[in-house]
């Protein structure tokens, strides 16, 4: 199967993970000083990850989890999450992103009603990080390796094998799930507010956004909002908007747009020299060189 590098996900991610009949996709994520983070986002799919090399910090439901090689991460659908590298270190991970439809969540049976639906609706909260000292670690790691092998080999019937393995994964984790009511209420409320803000930025990033405007969505003061945003996203709100605009610009170049001025204006940069400078700082090359490299590839 084709290996895909992690996209630059933003907010409510719209990337298509796999195909409608087989909604499962493998991603390889590599963080470094030049690509230090996967910004806060969420999607309708669950994801299952193995940290292969290096270390980083996962943030899930606004809580931080430092992870090391060998650690496993399981995130149910709609979980707000982000990844940030530790300066001077890198990280490589292998992830499987899959829709719960693949496991039969729409079936009117006991498995869907009692287990899959509560997990998808965040009524049941699994352990987000499974480390070597976790009682289920050995089983979960074996399942990950079996999933990876089945996906890579793609032998006849591998889709059935993968479906079976992901159902086994959920069965193994179920005894360690907690009720959603046990989560800190403040974290739940803050996660909901942060999702609203990120979703608004996603739809209005090309406009002149102000801190006052975004703070109003949460009913926070500007001072509290700025601290709140940086605490949970890992960067200031203005830096986040700039980063998103640059990623949107790169997407437009990848889609064939060739006018730097048009792209910069379309994503919200009104100063061309500033756009050039920030684009080069993020991608290590000018927009022109970025487009040239796309042509070569």
From TrEMBL:
Residue intervals of the HTH araC/xylS-type domain: 195-293
Domain of life: Bacteria
Protein's UniProt name: Helix-turn-helix transcriptional regulator
Keyword tRNA-binding attached: no
Gene3D superfamilies linked to this entry: Homeodomain-like, Jelly Rolls
Record key words, sorted: DNA-binding, Transcription, Transcription regulation
Endpoints of the signal sequence: none
Keyword Electron transport among UniProt keywords: no
């Amino acid at each position: 199967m084709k290996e895909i590098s992690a996209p630059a996900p933003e907010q409510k991610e719209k990337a298509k993970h796999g195909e409608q009949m087989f909604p499962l996709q493998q991603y390889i994520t590599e963080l470094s000083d030049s690509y230090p983070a996967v910004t806060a986002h969420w999607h309708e799919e669950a994801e299952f990850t193995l940290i292969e090399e290096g270390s980083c910090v996962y943030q899930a439901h606004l809580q931080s989890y430092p992870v090391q090689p060998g650690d496993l991460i399981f995130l149910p659908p709609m979980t707000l999450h982000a990844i940030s590298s530790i300066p001077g270190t890198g990280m490589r991970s292998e992830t499987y992103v899959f829709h719960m439809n693949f496991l039969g969540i729409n079936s009117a049976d006991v498995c869907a009603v009692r287990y899959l639906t509560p997990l998808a609706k965040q009524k049941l909260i699994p352990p987000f990080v499974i480390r070597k000292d976790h009682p289920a670690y050995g089983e979960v790691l074996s399942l990950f390796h079996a999933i990876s092998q089945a996906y890579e080999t793609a032998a006849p019937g591998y889709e059935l094998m993968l479906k079976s393995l992901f159902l086994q994964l959920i069965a193994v984790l179920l005894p360690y799930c907690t009720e959603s009511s046990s989560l800190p209420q403040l974290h739940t409320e803050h996660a909901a507010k942060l999702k609203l803000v990120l979703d608004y930025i996603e739809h209005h990033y090309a406009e002149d956004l102000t801190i006052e405007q975004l703070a109003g969505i949460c009913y926070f003061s500007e001072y509290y909002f700025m601290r709140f945003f940086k605490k949970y996203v890992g960067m200031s709100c203005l830096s986040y908007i700039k980063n998103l605009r640059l990623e949107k610009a790169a997407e437009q170049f990848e889609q064939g747009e060739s006018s730097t001025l048009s792209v910069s204006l379309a994503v919200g940069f009104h100063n061309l020299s500033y756009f050039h400078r920030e684009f080069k700082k993020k991608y290590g090359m000018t927009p022109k060189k970025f487009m040239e490299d796309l042509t070569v590839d």
